[in-house]
Amino acid sequence: MNIIEINNLTKYYGKSRGIIDLNLEVKKGEILGFIGPNGAGKSTTIRLLLNFIFPTSGSAKILGKDIIKHTKEIRRQVGYVPSEVDYYSDLTASEMLQYSSRFYDRSYPEKIADLSDRLELDLDKKKVESLSHGTRKKLAIIQALIHNPELLILDEPTGGLDPLVQKVFFEILKEEQDKGATVFFSSHILTEVQKICDRVAIIKDGTIVKVENIDNLVEDTFKNIRIEFDGNEGIDFDLPGIIQKETSDKIVKLLYNGDINLLLARLSEINLKNLWIEEPSLEEIFMHYYHR
């Protein structure tokens, strides 16, 4: 079952591009990483899904419901963390969460207490206007989670969080996933996407250029190769499938996306001193798709 279905979704701001013919499906129970640099179209996509802005063309469904026709029903089943958090400045965190709970016709004191304790958020001391960016982000995370949503839409959710709180946050996301929740995780920080997500969708210039299981993307397709030659005869080493190549002294570094058997056969013809074959990081693969 797909929790999100996006079909040829397009948004222009006047003549400026937002997203163009975007197609994407998010499966029930998965954490999907939606990655790209600032300006790629990540936030535009999220604002369209939540019906904060209207599409130029195309359509999308969340939980099987049209994002425009069924906005009210969708929002009751979605938790949202924006990249920039802004609340009523004269309320405390506790008052803000109590106010938010009323939109779901009940209170959630136990969940609020548990999450605020784990994320180290003091609910009553300060007004929202005096809270730091990181503390407001903690408040946004709790607000998004209190009503046990079926779908979490997170737009750069870790901005301002220290590493220890990020770790706890990722643990909470995994717990929500174990309960059946689906997570749409938009970020430009690739290390955290690789750590938490099941699949990744790469967006470039408003268009999806790759959707892949992270394990497949990292392990099966690309390899980092470092070759140390015994002499100079192998420095000009070349082979189909070499995506990036760096040469220094008697060492060649490759990002390789070809047949590993052909590579080893070619290397057997050359005097080698050392050979390293490693998995590349998601960031290295991401940069390949962006520079391709």
For the sheet with most strands, the description reads: 6 strands, mixed
**Proportion in β-strands:** 25-35%
Full CATH superfamily name of the largest domain: P-loop containing nucleotide triphosphate hydrolases
- Tell the overall outline: elongated
Strand order of the largest sheet: 6-7-8-3-9-10
| CATH architectural grouping of the largest domain | 3-Layer(aba) Sandwich
Radius of gyration: 23 Å
Total number of domains? 2
Looking at CATH, which topology of the largest domain would you report?
Rossmann fold
Low-confidence stretches: none
On the 0-100 scale, what is the average pLDDT? 88
First-to-last CA distance: 33 Å
Helix-strand string: EEEHEEHEHHHEHEHEEHEEEHEH
Helix fraction bin:
25-40%
Please give the number of β-strands: 14
Please tell me about this protein's structure.
- This protein is an alpha/beta fold and 292 residues long.
- It has 2 domains: 2-213, P-loop containing nucleotide triphosphate hydrolases (Rossmann fold, 3-Layer(aba) Sandwich); 222-291, Alpha-Beta Plaits (2-Layer Sandwich).
- 33% of the residues lie in helices and 32% in strands.
- The chain is built from 10 helices and 14 strands.
- It has helices at 42-49, 71-76, 93-101, 109-118, 133-145, 163-178, 190-196, 214-221, 260-267, 282-291, and strands at residues 2-13, 16-27, 31-35, 57-62, 65-66, 78-81, 151-155, 182-187, 199-204, 207-213, 223-229, 242-248, 251-256, 272-278.
- A 6-stranded mixed β-sheet has the order 6-7-8-3-9-10, sandwiched between helices. A 4-stranded antiparallel β-sheet has the order 2-1-4-5.
- Strand 4 (57-62) and strand 5 (65-66) form a beta hairpin.
- Helix 4 runs antiparallel to helix 5.
- The longest helix has 16 residues, at 163-178.
